Amino acid sequence: MADTQTPPSEQTPLIEPATKHDSLTDLSTLRGWGICALMSLLIFIQATNISMMTTAQSEVAADLDAFAEATWFTSTFMIAASSVTPLAGRFAAIFTARLCLVFSSTILAIGLFITAAAPSLAVFLLGRAVTGMGSGGLMSIAIMLILDFTSTRRRGLFIGLISTNYTVGLSSGAVLAGLLTPIIGWRLIFWIQAPAALVLGPLLYFTIPPPDEDHSSLREGTLLQSLARIDYAGALTITISVVLFLTSLASPEVLIWPIPLSLVFLGFFLLIESRWAREPIIPVHLFRNRSVLLSCLAGVGLMMSRWCVVFFSPVYAIAVRGWAPASAGLILVPTNAGFGSGGILVGWLHIRKGGSYYASCLVLFMLFALATMALSILSSEDSAAALFMTATFLNGFFAGALMNYTMSHLLHLTSPHMHYIVSALFTTFRALAGSFGSAVGGGFFTRILKGSLESGFSRHGLSPKPDLVRTLLGSPATVSHLDGIERLVAVQSYEHAFSMLFMAATFLILVAAVFQAGTGWTAGSEDKTDE
After folding, report:
1. Per its UniProt entry, which superkingdom is the organism in (predicted)?
2. Which residue in 54, 134, 228, 260 has its CB near the most CB atoms, within 10 A?
């Protein structure tokens, strides 16, 4: 067939005009800001559900008589979210991001309703798991929308805005739960969030424009044909593997038997994805690309260490500083303000075009490690509160900047047509790392704290106090009700547990920096094969 394209002339522009959906300006102003506002509200609800347990934990544990199981309040949510996150990218490619948003927000609302009405611990944890399943793919879908509707020049800024909104939700969740739980109870907080999540999904569906013709080939066919494209075996094996692994390390006592089983199911998953899956959930062949593999591993270390700070800073304020839960939530304000401002500033001032950000990534990793080490040193009752909060701000600032730099550097290292799947994969690993950080970090912290409490009481000649130890593990607010030797032991034990947790996070950051250093300035030669 003859070429019907108009031949170039002196009037032909050197740079072609932006294609459809190249930036938010291609949408109407009202529609573009409507997408931003509605998506921000949905992410806000998701984020508050993570941090609110840090200040509402004591009340929930007392209401459900679940002091020993308090570590599962957040771990259950994060394990469920991390199990679903790998599926989000593939489901969005098959059913469109707008349809997946409706499904995710509906599941999120159902989980919130179950949690609010839970009469027992078992039902409460079920509600937390369903809520986590609903929230699992929201961040991945948000990044996909940015790639669809923003230009390369503005991408860094909008990724920074998404991170800022997420971190505002984290800060607000702890503060609002601390303020409202003593007044209206923890159940009403979930009752308020549930209908909001139920409405936001359909509103986003009608606000986001349908996919253009360039992407329709990904989703052609009937509903049954679309369902047949899902990699059910891969989804099942990766979910079982993640759940077993996190259950083992999140437990107050490390469970050995789930780890080898987790590795077995992981092996099955890799075999299925590489040999038999027509449309794999996680394209295993991408990990032959050195840049993609090492970037994902560096992102895991980055977010695991970051979550240790976010989740446990309010607990430190309650147990060691003696702050009320309402005030303890405020300790997240500086660190999350730093996280948001770090992402926005580098996106606005530095990441204004595609290119390598190799040196910036490595410098920020070192600064991030120093800020986290400072937290380990300052996590005592005698240190200045202003210094601790300054260290949390710097920790958040460097982490937020790294979120933006590492994503932009990975996009530089991969070809443009791989950006959609690579960014979804990268976001998936970061989400998994967040789950690992809160769940595994919670298990590590609980084990250190329990050992310190038992040895502390024994060292001071006190009789074994299993009931008090059990209560202290699930309710940091109990420390303020103690006095004498009991309070001394409790505070010192919490101090030691926090110091060890933040030191472990520092080591993890340094390991992540080594992985990031291995990504290099340019992509490896294997990229062309993957393309």
Report:
1. Eukaryota
2. 54
Tell me how far apart the alpha carbons of residues 320 and 106 are, in angstroms, rounded to a whole number: 39
Percent of the chain with pLDDT over 70: 82
Backbone phi, psi, residue 132, to 5°? -65, -40
Query: What's residue 251's pLDDT?
Result: 66
Decide if pLDDT at 233 tops 80.
yes
Name the 3-class secondary structure at 526. coil
User: How deeply is 217 buried, as exposed, middle or buried, from its count of CB atoms within 10 A (0-12, 13-18, 19+)?
Assistant: exposed
Quick one: pLDDT at residue 494? 94
Cα–Cα distance for residue pair 55/78, rounded to 1 Å: 17
Determine the pLDDT at residue 1.
42
Q: How far apart, in whole angstroms, are the C-alpha atoms of residue 163 and residue 218?
A: 28
Contact 81, 437 (CB under 8 A): no
Rounded to 5 degrees, φ, ψ at 462 are -90, 150
Residue carrying the six token digits 């993957």: 530
Cα–Cα distance measured from residue 108 to residue 135, given in angstroms and rounded to the nearest whole number: 6
Average pLDDT of the residues in 442-452: 88
| C-alpha to C-alpha distance for 278 and 151, rounded to whole angstroms | 31
Structural tokens at position 413? 């290292």
Which tokens sit at 117? 């009405």
3-state percent breakdown (helix, strand, coil) of the chain, nearest 5: 80, 0, 20
Do 35 and 134 lie in one domain? The reply is yes
Instruction: Note whether residue 529 is domain-resident.
Output: no
Maximum Cα–Cα distance across the chain: 94
To 5 degrees, how large is the angle CA 377–CA 378–CA 379?
100
| Residues 155-168: tens digit of each pLDDT | 666 766 776 777 77
Total of domains in the chain: 2
Q: What tokens does 70 get? A: 């308090």
Domain with 256 in it: 231-278
CATH number for the domain including 138?
Answer: 1.20.1250.20
